[in-house]
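User: Structure please.
Assistant: Input sequence and predicted structure:
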Amino acid sequence: MNGQVTERLFADKWLSWRIGGKWFLLTELDTPDPWVAVKLEPEVGEMLREHYEGVRPAYHMNKRHWSDLVLRLLSDDFVREHIKASYDLVVSKLPKRLRADIMKS
């Protein structure tokens, strides 16, 4: 990920990360069971939910495109891999001009 990622607190207890103005990662602060929401290709999210107890439909997001990763149930490497996949997916959907700017940084 690069320097164009922004982090923003909203609604007093939600933290979001964006690239090109689009969310790729969200989390709720102060929750007893920490999780992150990531955007995934629908087929990937569905497959992961079938195979991992710690992958669930995202609580407050479009459940077809977003999945919650429950941190205590998944390895750090698994979580990092899917945060990166979310970032890459969002970047791939940005306008060509923005993608080119991101790739330069």
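Strands lie at 6-10, 14-19, 22-28, 35-39, 55-57, 66-70.
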